[in-house]
Predict the structure.
Amino acid sequence: MNIDLSRLPQTLDALHLVLAISVFVLLFLLVLVLTFAVIALLRRGTAPPSEPLVTAEKGVLAEKPKVVEPVAEKKKPAPAAPPPKPIILREPTPDAALQLLGLLQSEARLIDFLEEDIAAYSDADIGAAARIVHEGCRKVLHQHFEIEPVRDEPEGSRITLPKGFDPAEVRLTGNIVGEPPFQGVLVHRGWRATEVKLPQLSEGHRADILAPAEVEL
């Protein structure tokens, strides 16, 4: 087949020029789209996997660290109150009490006065007997005991009891409300024994005999 080159157009008319430009534009767009597609594929292939992770050193799968939620700290229970100390009861020795009662009988005839039926006596007779008992009891008290008031304030004065006062020394009466300090009126000063001077008992002495019977011959 022979091609006659003389018949080819020597100049480009407007239609052929538009077609040529369109072809170049389409080729440029195609190349641009392919370029973006290749770049996207390359980025996707090099992105690190989300999970699980492969460690380069050991070649084992490493799980994502678990998020540990903070646990609310439990309140420690309040320490239990210590148990109250046991009350130790001391066994009383009757000898000293019997000895004191014997002294009151010997010096003041206290047992005779208390055991007498005073309903048949007049107030004057009772008063006279009470004076004798009072003098004898006072004598025994001063001879064998040293005593002093618990409170130094005069009776009838207002006093303040601080927190921690000794309930063995002060007894509260009336309307007791709240916590100390308390304010009130001193009704009685109280008494405290500072020394006891009972006589010693001889061996074989019978303390239960408060007063021996008397026989006149």
In short: Residues 52-62 have pLDDT under 50 and may be disordered. The first strand starts at residue 53 and ends at 54. Residues 15-46 form one domain.
